[in-house]
Task: inverse folding
């Protein structure tokens, strides 16, 4: 089925470790983004991309890196994990412009940093 | 900067009631507005998408309206059921970013 695929679904990291959360979409969407969701704080935008080779920072970018080498993939890298990065991470994608089909979300990655 | 507000933050209704959730946004320059549902511990499921040129969209018991000039949208749920219990979020797309409200937590009491 077409959609946004996130892997892994669950991950436990030790403080200081690095890892990459994977996000792939097969809808040819130009726009892709990463959010974190913490209890009582809603969705917060980490990074987003409006097309291959173009990325920009969102509201809470510190401690995270992204790249967009292809239209389909938008990985999120944690450089040196910290307990404050314990959260649920969502990837989402969309077409851009008027008439866009709306946002499609992945099922999330639950990350715990100990 | 676009700001999206949802009122009320929480709502509890008996089964069978019709209800309205509200979403307001500060900048009317949007491409579309989308309503999502999120169950505890789960991802976001799209319910309805309204393009900026549209006034409303309907899906089953759900009806969403959009008044872009006043910066308001409503989600109407008819004949509520316990399975409707979830958090409902609205989001507006400006062409560069999506802006989310903080959601309305709905509980439908059997």
Result:
């Amino acid at each position: 089925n077409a959609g946004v695929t996130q892997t892994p679904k669950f991950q436990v990291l030790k403080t200081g470790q690095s890892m990459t959360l994977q996000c792939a979409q097969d809808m040819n969407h130009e726009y892709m983004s990463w959010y974190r969701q913490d209890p009582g704080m809603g969705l917060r935008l980490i990074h987003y991309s409006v097309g291959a080779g173009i990325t920009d920072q969102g509201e809470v970018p510190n401690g995270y890196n992204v790249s967009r080498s292809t239209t389909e993939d938008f990985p999120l890298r944690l450089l040196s994990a910290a307990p404050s990065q314990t959260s649920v991470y969502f990837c989402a994608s969309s077409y851009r412009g008027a008439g866009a089909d709306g946002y499609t979300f992945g099922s999330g990655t639950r990350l715990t940093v100990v | 900067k676009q700001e999206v507000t949802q009122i009320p933050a929480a709502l509890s209704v008996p089964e069978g009631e019709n209800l309205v959730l509200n979403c307001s946004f500060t900048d009317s320059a949007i491409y579309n507005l989308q309503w999502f549902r999120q169950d505890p511990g789960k991802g976001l499921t799209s319910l309805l998408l309204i393009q900026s040129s549209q006034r409303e969209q309907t899906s089953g018991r759900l009806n969403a309206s959009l008044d872009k000039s006043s910066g308001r949208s409503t989600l109407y749920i008819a004949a509520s059921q316990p399975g409707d219990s979830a958090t409902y979020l609205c989001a507006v797309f400006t062409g560069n970013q999506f802006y989310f409200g903080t959601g309305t937590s709905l509980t439908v009491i059997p």
Summary: The radius of gyration of chain A is 13 Å.
